[in-house]
Write a structure and sequence with these properties.
By secondary structure, the chain is of the alpha/beta class. Helix content is 32%, strand content 18%.
């Protein structure tokens, strides 16, 4: 695993959407099939389960872990979760899991634990794995990290429009406030800093109870979250956030009688693609694979 590079969108095009379909149906790849696959430059798996939250709204750990496994298997088109994870990380890696501890909507501990367990099973040594949010630049594991996993819940954000996978890396800088200009337009640039460039193996956008509306930098209102009961998984953080922007916009559309103040527009997502080149923001070029519970999914 030494020197392992993360899987790219090109890897997907070579070995997933088009090739898997052809093998499944015993058909040769056609030129048109290859063209259609090439039109999709990113893959996002959206999985939902009606039982992932209990009656009090708390995550069901075993269900959440199962959802993660199913989504990862589908993302990489494998049927063996252990083998799948050995293709993501391995014994030579130092793994930083970048979580999010925002008090009103933190990353569920059960998901953090599931990721740690899968990394251990893939051969990463326990002392070479860390889960953290604040202080990562001074954390010895993150300082040595050869691999990163990015995981955070989706919410609206006062400055950037949404808090998603792209913004979750802002703490890889010592001056995060300097990235707030122009509605956080250049957040994608953080991903090209040496401390994290090219290291991310997996991104997970937590959609259990997204926050779809808020005014002010620390706004949280239980009225503006809903039990979507989902996870979205991809190697592409921009594609995940583009799906997140769409989801929040659709929820606001059906929730409010008239357009509310503020919005879910997030220019940094598009610019992460067109200016910083870290992923795909165009929904027409994102392959969205839906799994599980489909009621009130809001996005196709």
């Amino acid at each position: 695993m030494s020197g392992k590079r993360p899987l790219t969108r090109r890897d997907f095009l070579k070995g997933t959407a088009c090739g898997t379909a052809a093998l499944a149906f015993g058909l040769p790849l056609t030129a048109r099939a290859e063209e259609e696959a090439a039109e999709k430059l990113a893959r996002v798996v959206l999985i939902r389960d009606r039982d992932v939250l209990d009656d009090a709204g708390a995550p069901n750990g075993p269900v959440l872990s199962r959802m993660l496994d199913q989504a990862v298997l589908r993302l990489f088109e494998r049927d063996d979760i252990a083998a799948c994870w050995r293709g993501i990380v391995g014994p030579a890696d130092v793994l930083g899991i970048k979580s999010n501890v925002w008090r009103d909507l933190p990353t569920p501990p059960a998901l953090e634990e599931a990721l740690v367990q899968r990394a251990l099973e893939a051969g990463v040594r326990k002392e070479k794995i860390a889960v953290a949010d604040r202080g990562i630049l001074d954390h010895p594991v993150f300082q040595e990290a050869t691999a990163l996993i990015n995981i955070r819940p989706l919410r609206t954000h006062h400055w950037s429009g949404i808090g998603g996978c792209i913004k979750n890396y802002i703490l890889f800088t010592r001056t995060p406030w300097e990235w707030h200009g122009d509605s956080c337009a250049d957040l994608g640039g953080v991903w090209n800093l040496p401390v994290c460039k090219g290291k991310t193996r997996l991104n997970i956008l937590v959609l259990l109870t997204p926050l779809f509306y808020g005014i002010g930098p620390h706004h949280f209102d239980p009225e503006h979250v809903w039990p979507y009961k989902g996870l979205a998984v991809s190697t592409d953080p921009v594609a995940l956030d583009a799906i997140g922007v769409k989801l929040l916009a659709e929820k606001r559309r059906v929730f409010f009688d008239r357009p509310p103040r503020g919005g879910t527009s997030a220019k940094h997502v598009a610019l992460a693609d067109t200016r910083h080149g870290i992923g795909v923001a165009d929904l027409e070029r994102i392959e969205l694979i839906r799994m599980g519970w489909t009621e009130d999914a809001l996005i196709e």
